[in-house]
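call fold(seq) -> tokens
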Amino acid sequence: MIEWDYKTYDELTKEELYAILRLRAEIFIVEQNCVYLDLDGNDRNCWHLMGRDGSRLVAYMRIVPLGVESDTEGSIGRIVVAKDKRGTGLGHELVDRGIELYNRLVGAEHPIFIHAQSQLEKFYNRHGFVAVSDPYMFEGLPHTNMIKKG
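ret:
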């Protein structure tokens, strides 16, 4: 059973922040063999949605409010599920919970923007996101800009 929680950056414990950064590095940098600066300065201004299996962080995303990347839309990003939990539906649950939390915290009237890895475009389509750009290289991988309108 996955336990869900979200916190602002200032509410995160040192252990939670370490677990978040470690999971992101395990997947985005090591597994995907993508060298990029994950620590982009936005974490301090975001809400952090965490899914734990016992004490282990297995699912994570950050919710970026208006004014951090754009004044007209917020975003969700750094969406990650531990490798051994993929294929269980946890990714869909994470995105659904993230959208729900975004709508509550930012407001359903504000579109949600994502820099989606292009191979996950159909995954995000299932959650109401539509492509608004052609694929482009971002952080060493093909990405597509997508938006979900309230």
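The mean pLDDT is 93.
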